[in-house]
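Possible regression after last week's pipeline update?

I re-ran a chain I had predicted before the update to compare outputs. Posting the input and the new output here so someone can diff against the archived version. Not blocking, just want to make sure nothing changed silently.
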Amino acid sequence: MNLEDYGLKYFLSVVAMVLVIEGIPYFLSPQSIKKWLSLILNMDNRSMRIFGLSSMITGLAVLYVVMRII
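New output (post-update):
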């Protein structure tokens, strides 16, 4: 297996784990998800953008810390 194969395998593994983790709340508590989605529908665009940006920055920070440790 060459480096390109490993990269693709790693990428697809990460995508699969994201799908598993994202699916857990829908499986465990669909009623709560419906409630949260109705709250999201009522959010203004600016709040959603701030939330999205905060999520991305948090994800990058966690990734940076994890990569520095390993």
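Follow-up from reviewer: compared with the archived run. The helical segments are 3-28, 30-41, 45-69. Marking as no regression found.
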